[in-house]
Each structure stands twice: as C-alpha cells, then as structure tokens.
C-alpha cells in the first residue's frame, strides 16, 4: 500500500462495517435488552467461530507465582528482576517482573489486596540494568510516592514507599514510569493489580456471593508480538513510536486464545486495558448477538447504580468493573468476550503531517500494511491472523457449566458515589492535544520537559479542564496523576461515540470516578477536578497520554499543586 496519499485504510473500512453492524442498537446507557440486541450479526458469528478454537485455560490469580494474591501487609520488599514464563505453549518467554518472597513463596507481579485505610510500606530494589520506578496508577498519593518519573531508581538502587491508601474501593494497578523506558518496561511485563476494598465493596461481594479468582475474575488485556523462539518483540520504527505500538497477538492475563468455565450466575469481571496503545470495543456475544451486561464501576470505583449496556470502549490505562448475568445466556453454547470492529480513527497521517524521517510513513498509511511491512520478527506458535486495532476479534471464550441454583439478584444500589464537584463559572483550563508534524505529540503546543512545570494550580482549587483533541489526530487516553476527576460533557464526538452516548454526550463509563479519559479526534471533553489533598508542601505530578509511546513522544506535562 502506498503511504501518505489516501488516509482511508483497512482499519477505516472495518470500522465502517462495524458501525453499520451496530446501527440497529438503541443509543444511550440502557441499550441492551435481556437475551441480546438486534438481529444476528455475521461479524459476531465470525468472532464466535474464532473463539471455538481457543484451547488455553485462562491464567487466574492464585496463592503464589504469577499474579499470586498478596495482602499489602505482606508486600514489604519488591525486586524488579528479569525472569521467564511460559506465555505461548511450550516456549519460555523472558520477561521483566516484580518479584516478591513472602511466607516461603515466590510471587511474580503479585495482585495486591488492601483495605481502605491500610498503609503501603514497601521497598523497591532495582535488579535490572535500566532505571525504573513504580507508579501507583489511580491512587491519590503525595508526589514523592506517586512514581511520576521525576525521580527514578537507578540500576542497583532502592526506594522506600510509605503512604496510606485513602482511595475508594476499586481495582487500581501499578507499573513503571521512568521516562524513556516506560513503554518497553511495561511491554516486557512490569504491571500488576491492586485491589482496594471498602464497605461498599464488601457489601457487593456479600450480596452477589463473589470470590476473587472464582466468580470475580480480573482480566488484563494486552497485545504482544513474539519471535520464533517465543521472545517478546518490541522494536518500533519512528512511525510506530509516533502512532503507538500495536502487537499482533491478543492476550488476556498473559494467556493467548484463553477459555474460562463459569456457572449460570452473576459473574464479575474486573477489566484492565494494559496494552501500550490498543483500544478495544468490548462486548459479550452469543449466537450472533450482543448480550446485555451491567457496568458496575470505572477507574475510581463503583458507580451509584449498575448501568445496563451491551458494548463499551476501553482505552489504555482504563479499568471497567462489569457484572454479567449468565443466567440470561443460552446454556447450550459458550459466551465470547470480544472486541467488536470499529474505526480506530488514526487520522493523524497525510503528506503534510507525517513524522520525520525517510522510513517513517504516516500511521494512517501503515494501518493497512501486511505483516512483512510491520517490521516484526517471525512469530512463534500457530498461524493466527494479525490483530489490527479495530478488527473484530475474540478475546476469551466462556464455557457455561452446570452449577448450583443461584437466586441472587442484581443490586439496584452499588455505592454512595459523591456528586461531581463543578468549578465556578470561570473559564475552563484548556488542554489542546496535537502534534508538531515532526514525530512529536504535544499538549498546548509543548513537549514534555521534566525540569519545568508547565502549569500550577492551588491546593484546594476546583477546576474545570477542557481537553481538546485536534481533528487530524488520534484518540488519546489522557491520564492525570495525583487526583481523580469526573467527566462533565463531551462535545464534537465522532459517530461511533455518539451511538453509545446519553445526555451531554456522556458515555456510560463517564458516569463514574475517572483517572484516564479517552478523547477522540475532533472531540472536546470537559472534566472537573478537585485539587484538595492532605499532603504537606507543594506537590509535583504529570498529566499525559496513556498510549505509552505518545507520552514518550512528548504528550506529557508536569504540573505543580501549590500549598
């Protein structure tokens, strides 16, 4: 395919097909009806045929090893190490990992359990040959403990973290944040989960009889590439760095082509998009139709009440808490978690805005490239079609099994979600997202400078930010360190977003507490932030795109909260 002439690519074609397939759905947050929504969809049928061949049991949190569950009280020393695991069957894949020894057991990337009010006290020891640091994604902590990358741990160094867990119950996560190394370290394995519980959370688990790893399943969505030996491949060209690295193989909990067995009951899925740059349009499908499910929570915890939907987007860094009532499904066939087709809107390309360099085509042109042009090494394992962003693909098959009678009902109230605090009538602070035509992404025209704060706010201030994405751009999942926020309004949204939106253009997940918001090309999103905090002195944080290559290419700024 030629580059820089036409920006209508295979991705756009598939996305338009997906939009046509969804045209019969009802807009708004109550889109789905019990038992499915609309006529049988051939694309969904194709997804289910793909899932029928899935043969690898989904990795689940256990009592040790990879994703082993560990109370925060036992998380006292963590080492960043090089290790290896079996990702593809029969092959050992070298990875980076957070390693913990506790109670005579070894944990890699432990899933941490905490109660609101617990203290985090852990020493990080860096055993790899690169600087690193842990960022506690979504937690409202002081800047010294935030792991924002302004201070990092050199090879052989150590750092002590100490802070109380003050945030609402939710599934947070932790990952590296050393500028210059973030994408490759996260890609090679440094990421895991942190569950914070409070009274609302405990009540929900009791009401629905949920148990972590059994009927409450964390799902970490990632995309990766492997060479013929099963080693991870990450070597982005200039264009791939600019557009964001999209791996050709889809993994859930580091399991390719996974399946899970579940009873006919309400099952909870805690979903993290842990990909570097890929977004997903999630749906549960069966018999050629989308099944309704309930959105129970977002980045910062439970919603006030469950919202019934039948699809949702999730962008890098975001989390979704969903409840699926499998009693509504046909017991005679499996249910598939899928990413439906959509237009990923990689509209940043074109001859006048392509990144610099003779071998750097625009990402819009790259979208239709075949595997040989993608620059990847030969892959291991069975021949699987390359998963372009926006392709309709199966993520996981859920096999329904006979189970004991289950009489629990979906709760009508989930939490005492505080109302969004709106700033006064003063003009919003504008955050303009764009790029400079030379391979860099910008915020308000500037590139990341770790030595200087681009803006300052006053402690206790209540501000409204208007995040404006350029038309000739890409979607940007914008992540705020130090504080959560509420989404107030979406303006100028593309059609694929408007289909799912309700009042003020808000998506279902916009109803909750957020730390990462997806802003589509041409879209403006208004958010409300309360900069009240209990920490002493001035605080330094960052605001950046969570497409990790975009942050490295300049789309990050440092901001100060003045005491």
UniProtKB/TrEMBL annotation:
InterPro entries: Cu-oxidase-like_N, Cu-oxidase_C, Cu-oxidase_fam, Cu_oxidase_Cu_BS, Cupredoxin, TAT_signal. The keyword Oxidoreductase applies. It holds the Pfam family Cu-oxidase_3. GO terms for cellular component: periplasmic space. It is found in: Periplasm. It is an enzyme of class 1 (oxidoreductase). Residues 105-199, 426-562 form the Plastocyanin-like domain. Its EC number is 1.16.3.4. It catalyses: 4 Cu(+) + O2 + 4 H(+) = 4 Cu(2+) + 2 H2O. GO terms for molecular function: copper ion binding; oxidoreductase activity. Keywords: Metal-binding, Oxidoreductase. Monomer. This is Multicopper oxidase CueO. It comes from Hydrogenophaga taeniospiralis CCUG 15921.
